[in-house]
User: Fold these one by one.
Assistant:
Number 1:
Amino acid sequence: MPGFPPFSTPRESHNPKNDAALRYPPTVPIVTGMPLTKQDLMGLNVIDCQTTATALGLPPLGPSPLMAQRRAQIQDFLGAI
């Protein structure tokens, strides 16, 4: 899945600290429920994962994805490894 500038490769870490602010594409509006830090990302619930994935334009993961899969999809897209 392609990232967004200035990220050059998927899974490239741009947020090495858990309390570092996540970087979103400039065209993505930050809405209630979206994680602001890597630590927030690891604590997302199902609704917030769905909200974030939708805002990022990520494809569905299937009928019953695990929370870890939902978080990993967002984490991979944002380069927050």
Note: The chain has one domain: 1-81.
Number 2:
Amino acid sequence: MLLKLNKIKNISISAFSQLMLLMSAPVISRLYSTEQVGIYASILAVGTVIGLNSSLKLDIALISESSDDSHETMAVALFLGVIISIIVGSIWGLTQFSELSSVICLILLSISISLFQNVTYYLTRLDKINYLSKVRVVRSMFISVGQIGFGLYFTTFIILIMSMVIGNVIPIIKQLKFEIVRLDNIVNVLKRNLSYIKYAIPQGLLNSLTMNLPIIFLSISGEFVLAGYYLMAERLLRTPVNFINTSIRQIFLSDFSKSINKFKCYLSWLIPLILLSLLFYLFMYKFSTDIIVFILGSQWRMSAEIVMVLLPWITLSMIQVPATGVLIYLRKMKIYSFVELVDFIIKASLLFFFIDPDDFLSGLGIYSLVGLITYVVIILMSSIIVNKHVSNK
């Protein structure tokens, strides 16, 4: 009983952290122009891809490592995250952006995302879920206060980016213990985790690219205003979903790793999430336009149209959280990577060869349908794998 109450408490705290970001949206949408939000979106999309993958997925490998090995892996993950973020961020920024400030923002954002990702998984490895939930609240508070407070004086994308950088770093600063990393440390860690990361790296890269591909496509096409509409639509839609995709993933992994009957544990998460996602879909289908106009203002009505297109795909992402968690914990990254590769190829082909930016919504509908089918495949595949894992034991 105490365990269930603790789980509910952690989920509630994480949900509140996402609610804080949602509460800042009405102010941000009225302070910043659609174009500035669009430029912010383009840097955020690329920074997310770089930051989530710059540690070569050693952050996730921490979950199933022994206590003796995890300390060294964490040190190497932090080191690689910073170095690769600087290198890749510089290359992308200098080739895509005309202003040095945009390049610097991209590098700093990538580093901050990488640091936050590494620390959150390390805390999960140590089973410090209560502390992790509080970290997420502090992060949301710094981001919201920074974007609104500084935005009262400077309404540029730089404020939006730097507020996120500060929000990512400040809550975890006590956990950041950089150590001297030698070449042999890097070789040992990579060799020890090679069987996992050789599939996890392409899977993670493809997954993060796929999630951010529409904004990357729009920014390359120069459609920053449309990218702004897309970001606000996705933020409002994902905010109530993201506490599932972030905090609950860590809680599920901790719960699943300690459970004796893993299939029962899997179903105990999957079934309630199916019911929750159905309720969420029906609610948003009915009221999304009214909600967006009320929260963001009538000038953001275009975002409501984008929400309706994305709704089936993003709603289903709630259900796939325990499914992807199973694949991560059981290290079934080879088959996961293959599914992500097929999904990415189809979506990238749609965006860059068949979708006209002037008719973006029609193409986005097909894009969303492909994503929905991919989630269904992952859920079915994970259910079979975890059931087979239990049967073999």
Note: The chain has one domain: 2-392.
Number 3:
Amino acid sequence: MTTERPQLKLVSKDHNLDVWKKTWTIIEEQVVCPQRAAIQPIEFRFRPFRHAIYCPRLGKIHYPWNDLLEIIAGQLKNGLV
């Protein structure tokens, strides 16, 4: 039995590493939403981020690990890293 990985979602053209770093923080192997300190370990990178109950971003679907991977892959492809 194989587990199929979801496709990386495309991030908008204006989404770059600086924008990502203003939206998320990485502490050890966890992405943290600075709004209400909800976390997502790297093991859950293919699941939507679960924001804290009082977070203003609650209800929005985010895949921060996938976004970061897409940004870095784009920078590598364009020779920016």
Note: Confidence is low (pLDDT under 50) at residues 1-10.
